Amino acid sequence: MVLAELGGSISRALQQMSNATIIDEKVLNDCLNEITRALLQSDVQFKLVRDMQTNIKKIVNLDDLAAGHNKRKIIQQAIFNELCKMLDPGKPSFTPKKSKPSVVMFVGLQGSGKTTTCTKYAYYHQKKGWKPALVCADTFRAGAFDQLKQNATKAKIPFYGSYMESDPVKIAVEGVERFKKENCDLIIVDTSGRHKQEVALFEEMRQVSEATKPDLVIFVMDSSIGQAAFDQAQAFKQSVAVGAVIVTKMDGHAKGGGALSAVAATKSPIIFIGTGEHMDEFEVFDVKPFVSRLLGMGDLSGFMDKIHEVVPMDQQPELLQKLSEGTFTMRIMYDQFQNILKMGPINQVFSMLPGFSSELMPKGREKESQAKIKRYMTMMDSMTNEGLLNFKGEKWAGHNWIGLLSVIFGMGQNRTNPKLMNESRMMRIARGAGRQLREVVEMFEEYKRLAKIWSKMKGLKIPKKGDMSALSRNMNAQHMSKVLPPQMLKQIGGMGGLQNLMKQMGSNKDMMGMFGGGDK
Ligand SMILES: Nc1nc2c(ncn2[C@@H]2O[C@H](COP(=O)(O)OP(=O)(O)OP(=O)(O)O)[C@@H](O)[C@H]2O)c(=O)[nH]1
C-alpha cells in the first residue's frame, strides 16, 4: 500500500529510539534524521519536512525535561502530532447536508481519476440515502461524457451532459438547474482535466465555478505525482476555492507523500481516498487513524467499523446469539470466510491491527491467503452434501476477528492432527471438491485452531457500531495479550512491548484516540 514504506521507516526510527538506554540529543537527532529522510524519500515537500523537524525540536527540549519525564512518550507524541498536523489543515471542509441541495465541483488534471472519483463519491452518498446526480462539464475530451454516462448508469445515478454542446459553462448550469428542480440533494459537476493551454483550463474552471456557485470544490489528485503535487494543487487553488482533496490510486506503488503537500498547498483536508478502480474502493479519510496505521499503531475503530460494514446487519444478532451459546460450527466459519472475502483488500484490514504496519505483510501473501480461504470454502461446499456444515469440533465462547485473521495468515498455534472425523468421510469431501485428502485434513486443522484461538477470546466483544466504550473498558495489556495472536504479540515485543506500547500511548482514552476511537 502507498506510504507503507514511509510508515515502516518511521516505525523503525521510533523503535531504535525506544531501544536506546538513554534518550539524549544524539538519539533524538538520529531519530529525527531518519524520519526526515523517510519523508523526503516519499516525496513530501522539503519545506514541510524542515518545519516538522523544527517544531518537534521546539516541543521536545531535552534540557528542559526533568528526569522524571517520559521522554520517549513525549517524542513519539510530538511526531504523531506533527504528522497529523501536516495532514490536517485545522479546518473541516464543507459537509453537504441531506435534503438540502448542494453543488460539488470536481477539479483535477486529466488522468487523476476525477471522473471515476465523481461516481464513487455519488455512489458512496447514494448508499447512505442521498439523491445524487452527475453533470459532465468536460467538453474538451472526446469520450468524457460517455465515460461518465457509463459509470452513472452502472451505479443507477441520474446524469446530464451533451455530445453537441461545446460550452462547459452552459452544460454545467443547465445540469445543476435541472437536478435542483428534480430535488437532488448532491449535484456533482465533473470538469475538464486538460486544455490546449494550461491557462485556458484554469480560466474554464473559474468560469464554471462562477456560474454554478458550488458549495464545495474538490481537488482530485493521483497519489503518484510526487513533488509536482504542491504546485499542481496550488495552481487549482489560485483559480477556484478548493475546499477539500481526494487522493486517488492509494492502492498503487506510489510514494504518496505528495498527498501531504496537496493539503499544505490548498489548506484543505483530504476527505476520501481512492483505493482501486472499483466503485466501492473508496474510503473516508480520517487523519488520526491514518497516521496511527502509518506508524503501525493500528486502527481498531476502523477495524471494527469494517466488520460492522461487512457482516450483514441481519446476520449480526444471529451470530452473536450462536456465539453466546458457545458453539462454533463449520457453518459459522463458512459465513465468516465469506464476510472476510467481502472485506476487500485484506492487506488494508490487516494494517488496522495494532503492531502492524502494512509493510509487515509481505507482498503476495494477500493473494495466497484469499486463495486459501476460497479453497477451504470449496471443500466446505462439498460438505453441504454430507450435512456436515453443522459440525461442531470444539466448544468455544467469545469471538474475535483478529484470531480469524491470524489463522488465515498462518500465524496460529502448533499444528496438531485433528482426529475430528473418520478418513472415509474426509475422502468423500475431498472427492466432492476435487481436492486432495491432505487438503481436507489441513482445513480441519485450521478449523480446530480457529476454534481454539477463539475460545481464548472470551470477553472481548465487538462493540455496537460507533460505540467504542466497551472496547475501551476492556483495553488493558493483560486483556490485549490474551486477545492478540501469539505471532502478533511477538511482533509487538511480547508482554513487555505491549505494556510499553500502551504506556506510550498514555491513558486508555489517549490510546483510543490514537486508534481513531473514542465514542463517536
Ligand atoms: N488503481 C486505481 N485506479 C484508479 C483509481 N481511481 C481512478 N483510477 C483509474 O485511473 C484511470 C483514470 O481515471 P479517470 O476517472 O478516467 O480520470 P480523469 O481524471 O477523470 O480523466 P479526465 O476525465 O480525462 O479528466 C482509470 O483507468 C481509472 O479506472 C484508484 O483509486 N485506484
TrEMBL record:
Pfam families: SRP54, SRP54_N, SRP_SPB. Signal peptide: none annotated. It comes from the Eukaryota. It catalyses: GTP + H2O = GDP + phosphate + H(+). One of its GO terms (cellular component) is signal recognition particle, endoplasmic reticulum targeting. NCBIfam families: SRP54_euk (TIGR01425). Component of a signal recognition particle (SRP) complex that consists of a 7SL RNA molecule of 300 nucleotides and six protein subunits: SRP72, SRP68, SRP54, SRP19, SRP14 and SRP9. Belongs to the GTP-binding SRP family. SRP54 subfamily. Component of the signal recognition particle (SRP) complex, a ribonucleoprotein complex that mediates the cotranslational targeting of secretory and membrane proteins to the endoplasmic reticulum (ER). As part of the SRP complex, associates with the SRP receptor (SR) component SRPRA to target secretory proteins to the endoplasmic reticulum membrane. Binds to the signal sequence of presecretory proteins when they emerge from the ribosomes. Displays basal GTPase activity, and stimulates reciprocal GTPase activation of the SR subunit SRPRA. This is Signal recognition particle 54 kDa protein. It comes from Mikania micrantha.
